[in-house]
Design goal:
12 helices; ABC transporter involved in vitamin B12 uptake, BtuC; 76% helix; single chain
């Protein structure tokens, strides 16, 4: 690894440590250092909630940028991402169906969390299959962005219909989920989310080397022995699992999957995909921990903060691409 990469990683790591420390100390009640280690302490439950919040943000910071990174490298489009391509919207629609129609079924909490995640992942996988089926029909892959926008609009319309006819409690549950409540994630949910993210990361790891060959062109990749169909499958499953699992437990976190890979390409050589993947994960953790601090301080919903941050950055990216053209 180059000296520049090590220096960048060191600064980001220091930023993560500082942001985690601040995150653990933000809340209505001041905690002591011992509260995070003594289970019989009166404040131990509050301390556990803050630890869960930090872990949830770390997992989201790893998963969503990795999902966006894989999609952007596969489609060779800096605007490709789980939110723009409609993956997040369809995952949200799947969660909406689960919340609105599963109220009559009594299940243990752990199973409820599992089905919530499964529904989001299943919806996003279906959409990714459709996207990749259409990708062969479109000569210009930028049409997939338009297709994703249309899918997002359709999913939003269906969710609105569900909300109109939903019972009060179901509607309240969905609205609270859609805010991106990072401070309401239980320990069981952290375990489920962590396992699913690890599966997605393993598939992402298996995709990096073929993506390096794919970036040099389809014909060259095939000459190197890259299985393009297997690569397509790995990218589909990995990006869908990673983005949908976070969406299931933390609500729709928009634009981070586009913005973080963009920043990583700005600060380091975009051709070195292994280092880019690592930078996406560590920078994603730093940004999500920082957003969690803002959310806890201002009481703004997490998805509002990510949107206020991501929209101007994406507009700037589009303007710079236009000037370059």
């Amino acid at each position: 690894m180059s000296k520049k990469f090590k220096i960048i990683s060191l600064f980001i790591a220091i930023g993560i440590i500082v942001s985690v420390a601040i995150n653990l100390n933000i809340g209505f009640m001041k905690l002591n250092f011992s509260d995070f280690f003594l289970s019989d302490n009166g404040n131990s439950q509050i301390a556990q909630l803050r630890i869960n919040r930090v872990l949830a943000m770390a997992l989201a910071g790893i998963a969503i940028p990795t999902s966006g990174f894989l999609l952007q490298e596969y489609f060779q489009n800096p605007l490709a991402g789980p939110s723009v391509l409609g993956i997040t919207s369809v995952a949200s629609l799947s969660v909406a169906f689960y919340i609105f129609f599963a109220q009559n079924f009594v299940l243990p909490e752990f199973l409820q969390n599992s089905f919530l995640s499964i529904s989001a992942i299943a919806g996003s996988l279906v959409l990714m299959m459709i996207l990749l089926a259409f990708s062969g029909r479109f000569q210009d892959k930028s049409f997939l962005i338009i297709f994703g926008f249309l899918v997002s609009a359709l999913a939003g319309a269906i969710v609105s219909i569900l909300q109109f006819y939903a019972e009060n409690q179901s509607l309240k549950n969905y609205i609270l989920w859609s805010f991106g409540a990072n401070n309401q994630v239980s320990t069981n949910q952290i375990w489920v989310l962590g396992i699913i993210v690890l599966i997605g990361l393993f598939l992402g790891f298996k995709s990096i080397k073929p993506l390096i060959g794919n970036s040099l062109g389809t014909a060259y990749a095939q000459s190197l022995g890259v299985n393009l169909n297997q690569l397509k499958l790995f990218v589909i499953v990995a990006s869908s699992v990673l983005s949908a699992s976070v969406t299931a437990f933390l609500g729709p976190i928009l634009f981070i999957g586009i913005v973080v890979p963009h920043f990583c390409r700005m600060i380091y050589n975009p051709a070195k995909l292994w280092q880019q993947w690592i930078l996406n994960m560590v920078l994603g953790i730093l940004i999500m921990e920082f957003f969690s601090i803002i959310s806890e301080t201002t009481q703004f919903p997490l998805n509002v903060i990510t949107s206020l941050f991501g929209i101007p950055v994406i507009l700037a990216m589009m303007m710079n691409n236009k000037k370059a053209a």
